[in-house]
Design a protein that fits this description.
Order of helices and strands: HEEHEEEHHHHEHEEHEEHEE
Structural class: alpha+beta
Shape: rod-shaped
Distance between the termini: 52 Å
Oligomer: single chain
Helix content: 40-55%
Strand content: 15-25%
Amino acid sequence: MKINKLNSVILLGLIAIIGILIAQLLWTKQAFTFEEKKFSQKVHIALLEVAKKLYEGTNHELPAENPVQKVSNDYYIVNIDNDFEPKILEFYLKSEFEKVNITIDFEYAMYNCQSDEMVYGNYISYAKESKTHDAVYFPKHKNLVYYFAVRFPHETSYLFSSLRFWFVLSFALIIILLVYVYSIFTILQQKKYSELQRDFINNMTHEFKTPLSSILIASHYLSKQEAISKEEKLKKYTEIIINQSNKLNAHIEKILNIAKSDHKGLVLDKKMIDIVAVLEEVIENIQLKYPNSVIDINAPKAYFILADLFHFTNLIYNLLDNSIKYCEEKPQISIRLSEEKRQLKMEFTDNGIGIDVKNLPYVFDKFYRIQNTKSNEINGFGLGLYYVKKICTLHHWKIGVRNNKENGIAITLLMPLK
């Protein structure tokens, strides 16, 4: 099975992010282990110094073997073959821990085998000095006479806080991975919907065009029959069939063009064209369809632009057709041409029903139709102005729409002059 390029890129990106995340978690684990080992070494050094100071000034010598033993992650014992005062031990512990930069809470306790009792020291808090002794008994160790024990109840949280940056970075990578997966899922869903929509439009238009072509051929043949031409009503009905079939055919072609441009992109064939000449030709054609419409051109001179003649002609036709359809009076459209900062400004104003201000930002959206008194009477798919906007974008033109002061709308195009 052939994997397309998009799926390959998605898979490689996912593998890369998961790999980075796993590496980050492994580095964090190694950093935690290193911090734990470094903390344990500091504690050993500090406790060994405490043991040495407890032997100073006594008749006993420090044992040859290391008196410091680590019983668990946060619990240490120190074998001292000598009696000593708890307050002296506390002073030595605090001073030696501070020398090696250990400033977290700890608790200590002493055991005297001669009296067979545990003598407890204090809980040392660097946040707030504790004034009372804890009454928690440490486990008794056999084969030791005098010894003291030290426990760090918050060692784990202290080590985690020292690795705060590593955990924040790991959390950020997890968020990035989740966002990436969500984005990929959304892209694939949109791609799937786009393909379904394109296939549906292609199939729909194909199924429509086949019977429509047969209807048009039959209608044209029918209109030429002598019996039809003599009967006024039959002739009128035949013309209605032909006109409505042509209108439906135009809608189908428009849908096909939009679907094709969305999938592959339109290829423009730009040439130097005379705008006034194009406008006059389009107006002549549209007035055949709407004989009662009045369309004026206000152009002080001839203007030339670089554009695709076919699409530019359709653009003008769509704008004029739209203005006439959404007019409740006799359609009057004015087309004004002027120069502004080396650009050609072409403004279409009509006397139509206008557009609500809240709907103006959406008039160029695909399939968007404004609900008003005329929308129920007019057939369409909401593609006319979307097509106009798309052609302007491909030509790098600017287009805008606003309401007139009295009634109707004004659509403005800005195009570079040649």
